[in-house]
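Notes to self after the Tuesday call (sharing in case useful).
The group wants a holo model before anyone commits to mutagenesis around the pocket. I volunteered. Ligand is guanosine-5'-monophosphate. Logging inputs and output together so the record is complete.
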Amino acid sequence: MKLTLDKTAEVLRGAQRIVLTAHVNPDGDAIGSSLGLMHILREMGKEVSVIIDDDIPSIFSILPGIENIQKTHENMQEVPADLLVVLDTALDRIGKVQEFVKAPVLNIDHHITNKEDKVRVYVDAKRAATCEIVYELAKELEIPFTRDSALCIYTGIATDSGFFRYSNTTPFTMRAAAELMEYEVMPNYVSEAMELKSYEVVQGMAKALSTMNVFHDGKAAGLFLNDELSASIESTEGFIDMIRVIEGVDVAVLLKCKAENVCRVSMRSKRTDVSSIAMSFGGGGHIKAAGCTLEMPFEQAKKTIIEAIDQALGQQG
Ligand code: 5GP
Ligand code: MN
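Result:
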């Protein structure tokens, strides 16, 4: 059932014990929106816990409240709650959270591919980040920002908008960020933390770049990390940004192996709708940034995604 913003705020007001979750492979928006909303709801006197069913990359340690995030584990007890809030994704990418939290769900997201209809859902694809929606909810709930909530929300907005450079950046984005800066948020502090990479990861970047492949008359570029290379690189965050800038390239793709016969695909585009390509493999995202998982060996996954991108580019003529 689709909700309006004020109904969404009402659902939050009506619950006392709330669990927040977001997508696996969490990014700045997933973590920022969870922690930002956690701070706001705690200001309202709610009991809030945050469960994200994955490891939290160390760059996010600057976010106040990060130590609250739990991951599910085998011996975990069911968490009593009146409401489970799923942020920045539909319900298909939250790992095992619903095995431990049986509460009714409220889904808050900004992905155009979110087709959730069995639960209460607020999706606004105009928003550059789920954190922009959390910002709006704070206003709707009339809860003033604090340094803690502002820093978390700002981080999600900044990371999902590519630090205010991507086409999802709107005047709303800039105004929200400007207002959050009034609460001691320093943009350089956030961007320096988010860009931090270990020496080994930068070495991995060099190896990843050596796999670069340009196809479809130079309109597409890919980094294809086989099992061995994928296993040797701790994080590929930001790698795709190095090839999406190549002159003439519309679609950039990064393929890496997660486990045996499990490959992860990230795509970025300037024009082509990559969310449709991702959706055709059961993934999703935004028109210009999307991803999916291909359950097949590396070589087959590489061939499959190149063919799909070729086809999407071919249709444009
Ligand atoms: P990234 O390439 O940074 O992992 O993801 C780009 C965008 O696509 C993000 O908004 C992310 O949430 C979304 N996305 C990535 N992988 C998947 C997926 O497997 N399923 C869905 N529904 N969305 C995805
Ligand atoms: Mn997001």
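Two things stood out.
The first strand starts at residue 17 and ends at 22.
The mean pLDDT is 97.
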